[in-house]
Specification:
The structure holds two protein chains of two kinds.
Chain A lengths: L2 E5 L2 E3 L5 E8 L7 E7 L5 E7 L6 E3 L7 E6 L4 E6 L8 E8 L5 E4 L3 E5 L2
Parallel strand pairs in A: 2-11
Antiparallel strand pairs in A: 1-3, 3-8, 4-5, 4-9, 5-6, 7-8, 9-10, 9-11
Chain B lengths: L8 E4 L5 E6 L11 E6 L6 E4 L13 E6 L2 E6 L8 E8 L7 E3 L3 E5 L1
Parallel strand pairs in B: 1-9
Antiparallel strand pairs in B: 2-6, 3-4, 3-7, 5-6, 7-8, 7-9
Classes of the chains: A mainly beta, B mainly beta.
Chain lengths: 118, 112
């Protein structure tokens, strides 16, 4: 059974940092591109970042470029999102999602809440 | 990087059909046959309902169907059931040089 389990969310002050993790199981993690998608309270889904299967290629939404870094450890079957210089508008539930191909997200984690507030 | 355009709400009575539109550009919806639709119930993670415009993953009822014409994709839910009440989001591949994936703003489907 495919499982994606996010962790690392919490309350952080503006300007602070946080690292999210997404533990994958039930499939060959190293064969899949992975993404982070976020959802602000009461708002819609917003794509955040993508990493290819071996970690050699990444992309980011304009809103997080230069502040967030996506990475993966295929030996640990884990996806990461390092978030720096956090702003109030980064407050959201962050989901990791498996990319079956061309942005088709066939499995999602349960999400982890990040709250940026003083 | 603009979001795809969806109506904020849609509704229908049990047994009826409802269609939700999703409008993009030639750089996303119109340029690729990689439109997906997701269902999200409150407090839950999104669930893939339609991929590659009109394909259904295993386990998704055939009451759900998708189509595309030009820059606009559509999701049709036939034979509405109470459990179909949820938020629905479209998404489209936008090219790896162009911010991989773009989502619509979401449509709240109400079963009357």
């Amino acid at each position: 059974e495919v499982q994606l389990v996010e962790s690392g969310g919490g309350l952080v002050q503006p300007g602070g940092s946080l690292r999210l993790s997404c533990a994958a199981s039930g499939f060959t993690f190293s064969s899949y591109w992975m993404h982070w998608v976020r959802q602000a309270p009461g708002k819609g889904l917003v794509w955040v970042s993508r990493i290819n299967s071996d970690g050699s290629s990444t992309s980011y939404a304009d809103s997080v470029k230069g502040r967030f870094t996506i990475s993966r450890d295929n030996a640990k079957n884990t996806l990461y999102l390092q978030m720096n210089s956090l702003r109030a508008e980064d407050t959201a539930v962050y989901y990791c999602a498996r990319d079956d191909d061309f942005g088709i997200f066939d499995y999602w984690g349960q999400g982890t809440l990040v709250t940026v507030s003083s | 990087q603009s979001a795809l355009t969806q109506p904020p709400s849609a509704s229908g009575s049990p047994g009826q059909s409802v269609t939700i539109s999703c409008t993009g550009t030639s750089s996303d919806v119109g340029g690729y046959n990689y439109v997906s639709w997701y269902q999200q119930h409150p407090g839950k993670a999104p669930k893939l309902m339609i991929y590659e415009v009109s394909k259904r993953p295993s386990g998704v009822p055939d009451r759900f169907s998708g189509s595309k014409s030009g820059n606009t994709a559509s999701l049709t839910v036939s034979g509405l059931q109470a459990e179909d009440e949820a938020d629905y989001y479209c998404s489209s591949y936008a090219g790896s040089n162009n911010f991989d994936v773009v989502f619509g703003g979401g449509t709240k489907l109400t079963v009357l």
